[in-house]
Amino acid sequence: MLLLENVVVTQGAFRLTADWQAAAGARIAVIGPSGAGKSTLLSVIGGFFGADSGRVMWDGVDLTRMDPGARPITTVFQDQNLFPHLTIAQNLGLGIAPGLRLARADHARVDAALTRVGLAGMGPRLPAQLSGGQQSRAALARALLRARPLLLLDEPFAALGPALKADMLALVAELAGESGATVLMVTHDPKDAASFAPITCLVAGGVAHAPQPTAALLANPPPELAAYLG
Ligand SMILES: Nc1ncnc2c1ncn2[C@@H]1O[C@H](COP(=O)(O)OP(=O)(O)OP(=O)(O)O)[C@@H](O)[C@H]1O
């Protein structure tokens, strides 16, 4: 279970609070106006940004003071975080061993992950030799290899066209279903929230609200969300 207990985070004049919990295995969309604090919320959970007060807990363990790498969390950002000078296989290998000392079995896991996301045989290529959609798949495969129970997606597929994005969301849902991972995904597109996430966290007015059923939220949005959705 993910628990955000009286979390307060500030950046200059900006202040965001969060006080809710979500069950393990939940798929949660994070939606709200530009600048409302969606990325800030993910950063606090992932440990890239410190909370002023409150606690971030996972399964009863207090993560609040832990380094990002020590948390049971993988974050995938929009830029995909692939190192341009490393091959796709090496980039994936970093998901297993940061020093890239891989055993034979690890190489087999990398190959299996590539196959799982539809990139069989592309391990020797550099990221620049893949399309945007393929790079997204590679980033997802690396997240898969890290096998952490909490996956944070900060608009990782925003640069993809609608069909590719739908494919990627379906793939994430499938992979998360297999591993039981809990997923929080920032999106600007209510259609993505509706297709991917049964529940949605609305970030607006300085509050990351407790996740609520996505369909009901989108059918009857509060004013700040209605204004944003247009
Ligand atoms: N380094 C900083 N110093 C001061 N304020 C900041 C800093 N970084 C971000 N902010 C402010 O924090 C607020 C939240 O930013 P954040 O990126 O979390 O919003 P967001 O909802 O993810 O926005 P978007 O949808 O545009 O990506 C914004 O109002 C922004 O201006």
TrEMBL record:
First and last residue of the signal peptide: none
Any Pfam family matching the protein: ABC_tran
Domain ABC transporter: 2-230
Annotated Gene3D superfamilies: P-loop containing nucleotide triphosphate hydrolases (3.40.50.300)
InterPro entries: AAA+_ATPase, ABC_SmlMolc_Importer, ABC_transporter-like_ATP-bd, ABC_transporter-like_CS, P-loop_NTPase
Keywords: ATP-binding, Cell inner membrane, Cell membrane, Membrane, Nucleotide-binding, Translocase, Transport
SUPFAM superfamilies xref list: P-loop containing nucleoside triphosphate hydrolases
GO MF annotation list: ATP binding; ATP hydrolysis activity
UniProt-listed PANTHER family: SPERMIDINE/PUTRESCINE IMPORT ATP-BINDING PROTEIN POTA, THIAMINE IMPORT ATP-BINDING PROTEIN THIQ
Protein's name according to its UniProt entry: Thiamine transport system ATP-binding protein
Species classification: Bacteria, Pseudomonadati, Pseudomonadota, Alphaproteobacteria, Rhodobacterales
